[in-house]
Amino acid sequence: MKFFNRFSRRGLLLLVLYTSLSVVAHAQKYSVAEGVITFFSSATLEDIKADNRKVASVFNTASGEIAFSIPINQFQFEKKLMQEHFNEKYLESDKYPKSTFAGKVEGFTMGKPGMQQATAKGKLTIHGVTRDVEIPGTIEVQAGSLKLQSKFMVKLEDYNVKIPKLMWQNIAEQVEVTVDLTYKPQ
Q1: How far apart are CA 144 and CA 63, in angstroms?
Q2: Cα-based distances in Å from 45 to 50, 76, 86
Q3: CA 85 to CA 164: how far, in whole Å?
Q4: Which pairing describes strands 56-60 and 129-142: parallel, antiparallel, or unpaired?
Q5: What are 60-79's pLDDT values in tens digits?
Q6: 89 - beta bridge partners?
Q7: Strand 29-42 relative to strand 76-77: parallel, antiparallel, unpaired?
Q8: Cross-strand pairs, 141
Q9: Which residues are bridge partners to 125 per DSSP?
Q10: In sequence order, which residues have a C-beta less than 8 Å from that of residue 148 and are 6 or more positions away?
Q11: How far apart are CA 184 and CA 158, in angstroms?
């Protein structure tokens, strides 16, 4: 009976350890469970802000590979007229329906606790134009999730987004993009 109890405890411990390792091993790919990407334009006459909660993203913590897909027509503005102009005149969302990013995260270690500074290097496509970028941010390992946050500037001219000269006091030449996403294991 003592042998059986000792074997059972050891067996149970091994089963728990195996199960834990299996969960960790499978939890290398994460996808967005919730989050928002915001852009903010501050110009002389007005500030413009829009949020997009329809972001799709996958992050492979083993390889560092990360990809985003953002439907342009899902940015929500305070004023409907701003949203129409954004989609029809500036971002031409019928012609260029998505903005994407594909690259690798550097500086992040999955087993390291707390918030970590990281950089995503890759290709950002907006308005049909693809450019190499480096985007700074933080990643925090939380209980059962990863929290990614970033803030960076996008120069509209770099992505062939034309702002009429009459609108220069309404729309900034550069917009601030804020990323706040929570990933869950796939």
Answers
A1: 19
A2: 17, 20, 17
A3: 12
A4: unpaired
A5: 999 999 999 999 999 999 99
A6: none
A7: unpaired
A8: 146
A9: 100, 130
A10: 35, 59, 137, 138, 139, 179, 180, 181, 182, 183
A11: 33
